[in-house]
Amino acid sequence: MYPLAYNIAKDFLERHIDDKPSIRFDQGPTEAEKFSCSERVYRRVITQLIDLKIVQKDGNEILVKDHDKLSRFIHSHEEK
């Protein structure tokens, strides 16, 4: 079973690759529900990804900041 951060990062990668709309920060409750976690836990993971400079908050949107870092983060969890 993969950690929540992996699952959320993978979702960001898939959205980025498929050119889907970015996630809005106010969608936290909906996104948290999608990952079966609380909004608080979801926001913690987003904060972790921001701190790692993988994603960035731009106004009300959460955008992929560094595609390569995002891919490496995902692959590092897949190798475990």
Automatic annotation (TrEMBL):
Annotated protein name in UniProt: HTH gntR-type domain-containing protein
Lineage of the species this protein comes from: Bacteria, Pseudomonadati, Pseudomonadota, Gammaproteobacteria, Oceanospirillales
